[in-house]
From TrEMBL:
Recorded GO MF terms: methyltransferase activity; tRNA binding
Subcellular location: Mitochondrion
One of the protein's GO biological processes: mitochondrial tRNA 5'-end processing
Domain SAM-dependent MTase TRM10-type: from-to ranges: 183-376
Signal sequence annotation: none
Protein name: RNA (guanine-9-)-methyltransferase domain-containing protein 1
């Protein structure tokens, strides 16, 4: 309804120039005249005469057509909790808070899992912003389409061949479906001949619901980047629980995840069941051993964990318990850290390892770390920088103090 309303409002301004767009809409969606000088248009024909129809604002709310059975699963305690949540959202709606116009079943269930009122308000505000972004994206798309059609109609006509979009072209257009087929083919090649890398998905119980949702997004970004890389990994998700929030969020964004022809590997088995113990290397920021260079005979493990609320050495404990080798990225050797923890996201780890696999160049691989986390050398020292090596923050501060004391003595 929102898409049609926004699109028809734009097309009505263009008039006959965008008539072809209007014909593409369903016949039931007709642009009616404004009601009682209110600057609002309706996409359905109002019942009754326009002269006697009084304008009334819409009173539909996001909990009018809620499916209680699918959300609660027949549990009476969850049902009573859901009713209290509906009353709370009703008060927020009446007080003018940012509430989305529609909530899905999984969004209701996620709100029920939040314990505090402030966390629920943050989640509702986040869903409201996501909804508005989608609406604005649709409006901009329709505006660009209408402008493009208007520009084409105003161009001078000639009898010669015209090249460009919606016209003849001397080149074949590469569609997104063809690009996806190419990326999937390269993933299939990586399964046969590429380097294996493991994602340990056994940390669901150590993350909050928000961290689990964030972890699913990072896994999606990781998988998307890997399939577009020139030398992709063969990513294997191990210790997978199909009923976990992380896997459900990932399978929601990748609907064909269980398709036999889709290049996505996951198993409920442990990495100890898949590979020999001596070949495994667990990448964790909590150990003391640094990864000097990429070894093509090793199989590296990345933990699928987001620990923003509490930073605990869970991956270190698991590596010691399984008696496998562990290593961390040499961040202190090549970078000068400024702020934030040195726990990188999952997609950043796969970016670094994928570039490191090509030529074992740490300087090039570590460029995927956000610049905001690194210290700017010019803030302390204007001099030289070593050959592709990092100058430590401690050394910079010591040189700065030493030069300051020396200049002070010279002045005296």
């Amino acid at each position: 309804m929102l898409i049609s309303r926004c699109g028809l409002r734009i097309l009505s301004k263009l008039g006959c120039r965008a008539k072809s767009l209007i014909e593409g809409y369903p016949s039931s969606l007709k642009l009616c005249t404004p009601v009682n000088s209110a600057s609002r248009y309706y996409c359905i024909k109002p019942e009754g005469s326009l002269d006697t129809l009084d304008y009334e604002p819409s009173t539909s709310k996001l909990f009018d057509n809620i499916d209680y059975d699918l959300i609660t699963g027949g549990d009476e305690e969850t049902l009573s909790k859901l009713k209290r949540l509906i009353l709370e959202i009703d008060l927020l709606y009446e007080s003018g808070e940012q509430i989305p116009s529609h909530l899905k079943i999984d969004q209701w269930q996620s709100l029920l899992q939040l314990s505090s009122r402030s966390s629920r308000m943050k989640q509702l505000r986040y869903l409201f912003l996501i909804e508005k972004k989608k609406e604005n994206r649709i409006v901009r798309k329709l505006e660009r389409r209408a402008e493009r059609l208007e520009r084409y109609e105003n161009e001078p006509k000639n009898d010669h061949i015209e090249y460009g979009l919606l016209r003849n072209s001397m080149f074949h257009r590469i569609y997104e479906k063809q690009m996806n087929s190419l990326y999937n083919y390269r993933l299939c090649e990586a399964m046969l001949y590429g380097q294996d890398i493991l994602i340990d998905c056994s940390y669901d119980g150590h993350m909050s619901f928000k961290e689990q949702s964030n972890c699913a997004k990072q896994l999606l970004l990781m998988w998307s980047y890997n399939r577009t890389h020139k030398d992709p990994f063969n990513i294997i998700f191990c210790n997978v629980n199909k009923e976990s929030t992380v896997f459900k969020g990932l399978s929601k964004t990748i609907p064909t995840i269980d398709d036999p022809t889709f290049p996505f590997n996951y198993t409920k088995q442990s990495y100890l069941d898949l590979y020999p113990r001596e070949k495994l290397v667990y990448l964790t920021p909590h150990c003391n051993e640094e990864l000097k260079e990429y070894n093509y005979d090793d199989v590296y493990i990345i933990g699928a964990m987001v620990d923003k609320m509490k930073v605990e050495p869970l991956s270190l404990a698991k590596g010691k318990r399984d008696k496998i080798r562990m290593a961390k990225l040499p961040l202190d050797l090549y970078l000068d850290w400024k702020q934030g923890t040195k726990n990188l996201t999952i997609n950043q780890m796969i970016m670094i390892m994928a570039d490191l696999k090509i030529n074992n160049n740490w300087v090039e691989a570590l460029k995927h770390i956000p610049r905001r986390k690194l210290l700017e050398v010019d803030a302390y020292q204007r001099g030289h920088i070593g050959n592709n090596q990092r100058i430590s923050a401690k050394r910079i501060r010591e040189d700065f103090r030493r030069n300051s004391v020396y200049n002070l003595l010279i002045k005296k």
